[in-house]
Amino acid sequence: MIEQLATAATFGFGASFGRDLYRAAKKNPIIWAIIGILMIAFGWRNLYLGFGRGPLYKFFVTYLGSAILIILGTAGFLAVGLLAMEDMGGLPLLIALGLILVSTIAGNIWGIKDRKKRVQAAQVAQHNKEFMIEVGLSDSDFDSELLQDAEGNLLKLIEYTDDKIVFSVSGKRGYRAAIKLENGRMIDYTGVVRL
């Protein structure tokens, strides 16, 4: 499988990957089980991630796409379980139902955690927009890579770390401006200061 993944990546990660994966899965039913588990888990996860998306995207990707993944994964598992029942009794069906349940629970937990992160990131982004408006920072009319402060100084980003964003001031040698960050939130603007 690793060799097939490497080969597929070398020649383009599209149809060749799907063809190679199908060839490997034909010989190894465990790969089909993994694909089914991932389809169910991703489907349930994606149902929680509609935050901040437009209505069409939300409908087609969040709801319809997730439903398709869940239905295909579940139907595949049930089909394998029912087909295997003829040879082995009821055990394969119980295993299939158990894996569907585990995938559903895992996908829901994963989706809830990811949604919390997305909601927090959206709140931080909104706070930072409001902060920049409050302190008088705006996009420059002259250059898309520059900001303009309330006094008309043009600021160019030179450093971005976890605790600060530092700008040089265009046309003023030895001057800097900085925004202090706390957990991604902008909390203080120094204004233009001499080094």
TrEMBL record:
Domain of life from the UniProt record: Bacteria
Indicate the transmembrane segments per the record. Answer: 30-48, 60-85, 91-110
For this UniProt record, the keywords arranged alphabetically read as follows: Membrane, Transmembrane, Transmembrane helix
- Name listed for the protein in its UniProt record: Uncharacterized protein
